[in-house]
Amino acid sequence: MKDKVRRGGGRNQAKADVIGNGGGTDAAVIKQDEESSFPVKIQGAGVEPFELQVHGLWLVQDVVMALLARDEVCPRSNLSLTLASTTLEPIAELQSVKGFKPGAVLRLVEEPYTVHSARLHLARVVELLRAPRPQDALREGRSPSILETLTHTQTPDSSSSNAKNLKRSLSNTKTESTHQDGAPPDYLLPGSSDRPIMALLPHSSQPEAPSHLRDLSLSCWNPPPGHRKLQGDFMYITAMTMEGRRYDITACPKGFFLNRSTEDVFDPRPAQSSAVYHCFTDLLCHISPAFKQTFTALKNRPPLPPVEAMPTPYHTLSWLGPHCASRTHKNVFSRLGVDEQAAAQVPDWNEELQAARNLSQRTLEERLLREKTLLQVNSAFVRAVMQGAETVLDGFAEPVNGNPEDPAFLWGGLFMSQGAASAVFGGERGRRAAQRLELKGVQAYSDLEGMEGLHTLPTAIVDYRGVRMSAQGLAPGLEGSDPDQAAAPASRGLLYGVNAGPQESPQRRQLLALLARAAKSLGLQRNIVLAPNGHQVPLFTSVDAQGLLGADGRLYVLDVFRTFPADANFCPEVETESQAVISEENINKTCEEEKKGGVKEGWPENYHADSGLPKSSPHGLCRLRPELLKAFIQHKHCQFTQRVRETLEENGGFEECAIACDSRATDAVRAACKDVGSISDNIFEMRFNPNVFSEGVSFPPSESSPTKLQQRLLREAAAFIITDQIPAFVEYCLHNNEAPMDGASLKQSLHQRGINLRYLGYVLKTINQSEHRERLRHITRSVISEIFIRSTRRVFNGFLQGVDVPCLSAAVSHFLCCLLVPHFTPSPVGEESKKKSRRRGRGASASESTPWSTLTGSELWNLVCQDAAETYNISDSLGSGPSHLVECYGVQKLSLLREFCLKTGVQLRLRDYLFDNQNKAPIGPDDIVNMFPVVKYVKMPTADASKVYAAAQGLIHKGLLDQAHEKLKEAAYLFGRVCDDLHPEACYCHSLLARVAFLQGKAPEARSVQLKTVTISERVLGFDHPNTIQQYVFLGVYMYAGGEVALAQKCLLRARLLMLTIHGEDHPYTATLDSCLGLLLTGDQAGQFLQNALRLDTSFFGPTALHTALNHHLLAQWMCSKGDYRSAMTHEKEALAAFTSLFGEDHAQTRCSKDFLSTITKQAVQVERLLRQSGPDGTEQTVECLTPTTETILEQMVLVTGIRRLAHSDKFQEYKQKHLERKAAAQRELGLKLNSDLTVSDTVNGGEKSSAKETGGGTEADGGSPAVDRAAAVAASDVEQTQQEVKEDAEGEKSASDPEVKMANGETKLTAAGQETGTSVPNGIKSSTANGKTKNNEKNGEINGAGVITAKASVLSSKGTWADVVSKPFVANGPAVNGVAHNVSANGTAEE
Fold first, then answer.
1. Residues contacting 211, CB < 8 A, separation 6+
2. Which pTM was predicted?
3. Does position 928 have pLDDT exceeding 90, yes or no?
4. pLDDT digits (tens, 9 = 90+) for 608-666
């Protein structure tokens, strides 16, 4: 019932939350959906009449579900609808009901209860009365939302684009009570080493929920005796009201009534003058005035936004728990029994998932329903896996097999097992790798489009208390397993696999066709292997995979853990064996080739000497990632086209070969195919054999040539990681200020390039060999921390296996102390521990020495270093203890503690921890609040929403902000329909929507959407996730744009606190935060933040980089505001020198910096003159200071944070000028009169006044003259080539979601919402010598080579300022912070 109510409410809520309608086909469907809804009146069942928006395509049961979610009806249940005294069938469509029309009156009718429906009604009442408390999320281990507490706001509906300023409380949080003047606390100032944990989760400003009842439980007379059951009694309930009165209540088909029973006497007869109430809360309101008062207040409370009220689909772990681990509120409903009611039937997870996948996908509405259902089923499955892991590993379930090495469990419709540790795959490490790869294989097959006939089982893996278990839905069984069908053909059961045997059936042909299509999509090659019986078996998958025909008639593929090709860098022994199984002749031939060449085909020259690869791995299941295969195929395709071009040029050129129609072109293609390793001789086609380099796989002699080609390709792909991908990642980090901040963002960034985490040691080696090693120290720190924590986790998993359940808290705290405290040794067992044991009720037995308690810090460190050397090929990098990591790499122990807890599921008590005291354990048993399962699961698709989101990103690249804004609103609507916005990609979509709205001058809408984005990020990704940090920064900018300076400062300080916690101060993004804080704050603290930002940018990007020059300018601006013109001149001279070296003397930015330096000089001279003229009374002379305007500060924050990026290349503008000159020349030749406002100078300098923004503003509209069209055609003959050049030149600077502004003739037009604004004096400085004046002209909003970005004068007002050349990319290479697509951006470098 709960799921159904949520589903109905979600549909209705999505309609209410829609921000706007988009364009295109899907938008038309949405618009039609909205227009076809109409109101109806709801009456009856004791509720006040109200109106409800319904859809003609809805079923009657959909209307009932929507009604049950309304506050006016809740918690009533078991209702039906009538129209004109006729009961409506639940499965009937509203539009088919006779007499149904807009404005019709529908009456709610109370239906009789059954035992089941009465229990469900009580469960609804209990769910309503259990109002969420501020600490509930932490107690359940879920990441909380801190935004409301931080800003003290009551957030309105985020869909309102013109929402008023939020109401704020005047009180401050406890952590900021001493800073009522708005100054940042000392621990947030630059250079502070304090890292208070208590400040991470401030106390909530929400009031505690009142108590409604003292107790509500099943009566001691329950269950009813037989004769009372025959009279309709379902159950007996006892309620203790807040007034102290005890009542016994009977549940019956008509509802609930008071009976005459007492504690001592059973009398089920109705009490005198006791009415029967259909809703249980009506009865409680009748007997208890206190309950009526609190219940009325509960129903009238302001509703939370959906993103705060709705539960997240998946569990996002919070590594910090409540400050007080003990309960502060008793559960008055625990004895009612509604929580422990077992389901009438164990869920069949496989059937539910396959039924959801088989839903129709013909229309948008059907696809959205299918995706929403899939998400609901999968999230329920993952929750069941978490509960099952706790139940099994806590000892509440018995294994169903007798194998102690691999116990298997059946619980809640799940089959859970650890899997057998095979020596072939590497024992325990191989077992864990197989489970992880199985999940990836299931994900790969599930993501294939158009493969509805091929099914996979619901799968997840869970790590809990050091044990990894694999959980799957129960397989439907094999078709034909009935003994009566033994003589049937072999079309049932095992249809595909090495052991399937020869057979022929329609089902097998269908399965082979599906697997062939899947192999093509996954890039897998059809291959032939030798079965154990010696027969040749053709395969489209790995050798382990099996194809089954289930008893439900569906085709399943299982055991897909070796779906992707092997990593040749980590399987040298397997490589030798795979070659040896072909034939003796090939062995001898191969050995001769190796003796002659010394290097096997595919490895680069000196590859082994330089990298030490290939080498052995701790397990035998090292596979390549699909992202790597995609990048490698693109790399080979570039080689292919280059070889074809070179061959054709050698044979006379492409045109001659094409005109001659001879075999030269075909020969060139064939030669290129052979050279790059294409599996086809005629076209470029790359596929990989997943069985090459796999343990125990044999190939027949006829497959010798294809196998050797595959071995070569896999060696090249493995070497591609070392030679291309890792250096590309390091280069990205070198130029990007939003490089990975923690382990999660590092892992995501590496995986997007196809780099497995087993290459972390080689990433570290590449950084150490780089000449920019010092500038990459933040990446070194992150890599070292990730290596250390991952090796520690493996040691921790083995450590927990020898710990009894009563000692878990003590063992975990002891392990953490050994890990983080230098030279920690366990305290001897003495009287003190005995006293503690007695206090805890364990007697003296707890004081006995156990194996885990004898672990010392040095022993643990040796184990971690040994694992790191074995896994990541690093030897002395970790040093001899935690002090080495702190001193050599700047690693924070708090950051290590956070990473450890997130990866192991440990939750710590919220308090400050001190790790420097070696005489006292910093973490005690009472600090371990809980341990939660960490689940990895199959991610369900959001196909339609993701496609619209990608289309919006494409429109942003073209500069079509208006269309992109509409598409983003459409994508946000679709995400809301599918996942109620609680999805990582929905978070990225809303963030981009807020940015585009802000750039269009819609600051209130941007602020409203960004509030929602921050809440989504905190709840879905984590309250301290790197993406949450960036979203807080954006929110601070939007709040400042709305005049909420105090709230903007709080958001930026919150972002800095999180940044200091997860990484520390020494990171390029900290410079971004400090620059913003320096702009917002006043006094000396602003200078501290700006000077720290300058120090960081100088150390990370160099003294002549754009970042450094920008910070010099900001410091000069701040010093001007203080009147220190001498220092301001020094910093501006540094900025001018940097701009001159980057762009030359004639660049706009250089001229602008010169003008500002001249302004400072003039002001300094004027001040000096005034001081001299004042004589001895100079102390009373008023000195006017140069102060930046609010608009200037906002513009600087927008550029510093990367909300708007500025490009440096003028190629597109140069092309426009050239194109218009040729067009004008053609017009003059034809004798046409030129329009005065279409001249070259006017168009290039001022922009095309009437350029069609629908097309990106490439050409001018000319009235439709055929002659002019012909001239334009001549001028536009090289449009495509020039645009491609511009695209290629800007590829290194572009980000998938970053708007860019192009400059025309050295001046950037900062316009938006149809307005161009500019200032006649650089930097928007206001003083007696510099007063900016604005000029408005109609412009179009375009980005990235299609014109200019637009922004209202109230948001951005400056022209030709220092900011025109600042390049702050939003994200490079994917969602390291915000999930945007793969684009590498070189931040801070200008292309000339």
1. 242, 294, 332
2. 0.83
3. yes
4. 999 999 999 999 999 999 999 999 999 999 999 999 999 998 888 877 877 777 888 88
Tokens of 665: 């072109």
* DSSP β-ladder status, 1205-1206 and 1300-1301: parallel
Residue 103, pLDDT > 90, answer: no
Quick one: which of 900, 883, 877 has its CA closest to 794?
A: 900
Phi, psi of 463 (to 5 degrees): -110, 125
Q: Tell me, what DSSP letter sits at residue 716?
A: H
Q: Which residues of 166-197 are buried (b: 16+ CB within 10 A; e: fewer)?
A: beeeeebbebbeeeeeebbbeebbbeeeebbb
Q: What is the 3-state secondary structure (H, E, C) of 843-904?
A: HHHHHCCCCHHHCCHHHHHHHHHHHHHHHHCCCCCCCCCHHHHHHHHCCCHHHHHHHHHHHH
Which of these, 1291, 700, 1300, lies nearest to 958 by C-alpha position?
1300
Beta bridge partners of 153: 168
Integer distance in angstroms from the first to the last C-alpha of the chain? 64
Confidence of residue 1182 (pLDDT cuts 50, 70, 90): low
Of 718, 733, 790, 717, which Cα lies nearest the Cα of 766?
733
How is residue 504 written in tokens? 């022929």
Cα 204 versus chain centre, distance? 26
List beta partners, residue 270: 259
DSSP state of 175: G
Compute the C-alpha angle 1366/1371/1373, nearest 5°: 125
Coil, strand or helix at 1067 = coil
Q: Which two tokens stand for residue 935?
A: 């689940």
The answer to whether 425 and 434 have CB atoms below 8 angstroms apart is: yes
CB under 8 Å to 1288, separation ≥6 — which residues? Answer: none
Residue 547 in 3-state DSSP?
strand
To 5 degrees, how large is the angle CA 899–CA 902–CA 904?
105
DSSP 183-202: PPPGGGSTT-----SGGGSP
Residue whose entry in the numeric block shows the structure tokens 């802000």: 998
Token pair recorded at residue 934: 């960490």
Query: Cα(108)–Cα(185) distance, rounded to whole angstroms?
Result: 57
Q: Return d(Cα 495, Cα 478) in angstroms, integer.
A: 10
% helix / strand / coil in the chain, to the nearest 5? 50, 10, 40
Q: What are phi and psi of 1330, to 5 degrees?
A: -140, 105
For 1284, the 3-state DSSP assignment is: helix
Strand partners, 928: 908
